[in-house]
Fold:
Amino acid sequence: MNLLLLTVLCVSGTVYDDFFQQGNRAYQENRVEDAVVAYEQLVTAGVREAAVFYNLGAAHFQAGHVGLAVLNYERALDHTPGYTPALRGLAAISAVSSRPLGLPEGYRAALKGNTTGSRLAFRVVALVLWWAVWGILAVALWCPPRHRHYRLALFIGLLTAVVAIVVVMRRTPDSGVVVAEELPLRYGPDARDMLRDVLHAGDRVALETSAHGWTRVETESGQRGWVESTYLLPVALSFSN
Structure:
């Protein structure tokens, strides 16, 4: 049985701590479904702590929900990259799994690039550059003609930088985890499309695009196809409390 983290949460209000301790007690008394409910209430309430995701993953693992266990261990790692308890939890699942859990090349790097700090940094830099672009444009329009071409060159350079940052942010792949026991991977977004492969609970994939209840993904082997979105949950959540 995985060891739960028994720390007190550093969040606003003792109600959150109460739910956390309720979940811990339920888990220790082998009432894992009750533990899942308690931890889920914290997540639903907006608590974003690696310890909560880890404990929720451990409870799901003991309840036999492999996909949801992997998902929450990955969310703990998304919140706190390199989080040791979550890495150990994933290793424990792999040790008892009858098949390797899918892990696309570059998945961990993509997840690291999606952490709160990097997302916030991108937004701040883009915002500063955006206002700088318009400030320089205003100066360029009002400055003497003989200096105007320098301002326009700087304006074009900053605008290019803003566009590049936006493109990088949009191209940073999201990550998802299969939560169904088996999930057909199809060539198109329709249950009548030809079957390409079958994914399994706990497989991690790169999310590319979604449409009408289907999501296009890339698998560990580099295959691209469509799966039903209901059975595939994204790792990334908003980590602002």
